Amino acid sequence: MVPKTWPRPFPSGECWCGCGEEVSSQTFWITGHDKFAESWVISTEYGTVVDFLAAHGFGPGGRSARGEHSQKGGVG
What we know:
The protein is built from three helices and no strands. The chain has about 80 residues and is an all-alpha fold. The protein has a domain of about 30 residues. The two termini are about 20 Å apart.
């Protein structure tokens, strides 16, 4: 995992995807907007999911996203 060098984020009452919608003070997102934000950032910064994975050493012959996730106790 990448070392966290940024300040700890806290919910602000506004959806973090950038839509400007109000959310509860206990959450970052309107339901489903986390996936929109994830997709938009990957697209903006890397172009495609394949390029994103390759930039971090994942893919055939490299790191296994599924394998590393499972090793850290992830499900799926």
